[in-house]
Amino acid sequence: MDATRLKAEHVLYGLGLYGAARTLYRMTPSGRRAKRDRVLKRNFFSQLVRSGDLVFDIGANLGNYSEIFASLGAHVTALEPNPDCVDHIRRSYPAQSIDVISAAVGSSAGVATIRLAKRSDMSSMSTDWIHAIGEAQKLDDSVWSNQLTVPVITLDSLIEKYGMPKFVKIDVEGFEESVLAGLSAQPELLSFEFNTNFLDAAVRCVRQLKNLTNSRFNFVIGEPFRFELDEWVDSSRLVTKLESLERNLGYGDIFVRSPAAA
Asked: Rounded to two decimals, what is the model's pTM?
């Protein structure tokens, strides 16, 4: 969602018109398509998430996945550094079991700078990722024209406060290595986004996992509707498969299953 629409939502909410606007949107072709996609995503994640599970949604953006996890009965802790997106989640899903924290996640606690894009799902804390994606998509630097200093916490600190999650979903536009560097104990299930134009970083993420030898992997391309592999494979086979992908495929998610989830 672009920044202008997020600001407009804020105005509508203040006027008491936000609920009516959401209802009208759901009647549009885009709204109907979003509803269909939500059903497919919910079906996909129903094989991974069960009622009562604790889920961390790192880089929650607009909270679409947090809402899906909550609808499956999970208790969701959502981390998002963009305050406009945090407000959107709180407005859109007030009755859901979603604890929203306005912060980024990284290798150590502190503060950092996020570059805010015109589209909320392209905001990033990774200069290398911005350069790679900008070059691949022929985007100039003005796409990331604003920046914001945000608090940073670690996955370890989240686990200390909330307990070990069943599933951690990470979608942080190139900052995945830093997020994983702040994780000492691997949960049963974990996923992180990758982009075929920034593939070396994804391979490094795979290799830095604490339980690498015994973990099994799968992945999706684009939206998570189905796994690309018929079986979960070891890290070597996953990396071989990733490196064979065409560079213009764009984004996807790598899923990691620890032995405890087998």
From this structure: 0.89
